[in-house]
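Why does residue order matter? Because the sequence determines the fold. Keep that principle in mind as you read this record.
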Amino acid sequence: MKKSMLLLAAFAVTMLVFSLYRGIPTSAQEEVDISVLIETADTPEDHLKIAEYYEEQAVTMEKKATLHESMAKAYKGTKFTGMTSHCEKLVKEFQASAGQYKAMAAEHRKMAREMQGQKSPEPQ
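Structure:
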């Protein structure tokens, strides 16, 4: 009975986290749009849009890490010990991905600043 209650609680927590997570859809069109923007970026505004995209992706990865962290805790102490280590591994991978997305966003913000600094006033 205790194990079934634990599994039911784990399921409830997972469903709650998934319901919160669904707010960030990623569509194939969005992926195509960002690819085109990356290929054609030539203004500071373009680089800021790319940075925003990467920041959103970082948030998504952090949410996935949080979800799997919750799932790992729910699996601890159950007969599904392999699932605990699986989720813990995913937590590390999602956290690493979030860090990489943040770094890419910072790089594009830097590019935007550099481009803004290169703009010189029009000759009079």
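The helical segments are 2-21, 28-40, 44-75, 81-118.
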